[in-house]
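#structure-requests
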Amino acid sequence: MHKSIILGADIGGSHITVCLVDVLERKIINDVMVRRNVNSDGNAQEIISQWCAAIFELFENAAFKPLKMGIAMPGPFDYERGISYIKGLNKYESLYGLNVKELLAAELDILPECINILNDAPCFLQGEVFGGAAKGYKNVIGITLGTGFGSAIYSDERARDAEFWQIPFKDSIAEHYFSTNWFLNQYQLLTGETLGSVKDLVAKFPQERTIVKNIFEEFGCNLALFLDKAITRESPELLVCGGNISKAFDFFGPSLLSQLKLRNNPILVKTTSLGEQSALIGAASSWYAGSVVDNLI
């Protein structure tokens, strides 16, 4: 049984979550999971140490050290070689050009070959297709909305990175419009006040209904405008939204759906049903022969 248990990790712009996944069952072993905040502005050694601290805590809690691990990681990244190329995105700048796989392996005292690093968006979508909101669908677009903007397309029984984040949009790129910083910047522009998260913005709704409502409506309209071409090109059956911002779907979903309908692209939209578990399961199952994630081993 232990051979089928893989460490799954999901690294976001401000946190790491690690767990044990039974890849034969494709489910998380629920009694052992660790989540830690990460200072993504720290130096390389600080970041690697924070990630590994979470992994060591998991080993201690589980009294078991898996032979292999799969890590869902945001890009841009050379996933095969393990080198980070994240730059200009206000996270993990100090890792630019470094071989993250080798740094992790050295800190954990394992071989680099025992670590798979994969794009977080395809991992998210693979999990949703397997047993979440996208189960039973053959052609799906998945987006993750958080400190970054992830995207994946599922077709021909595999999930692949769509790399929407880098596509030019308005006066910048999509990443700058569909991530946490956009919300914080908009609120500060309108009020002069600083917030720490989209959750804080939602909490402002009872006192500042018009401002909060307008920010989310603008976000939904922008998202529809951006996704219009991809939906036309891919003809998906379903759009799945994940990431922390998707928890506020009730605020931006109506404008997203109405604008897509106006553009003659009405599509079924769902939010994740697995939450963080989708990326964890997707990353770990890269070691399973039946995986549909790119970078299959």
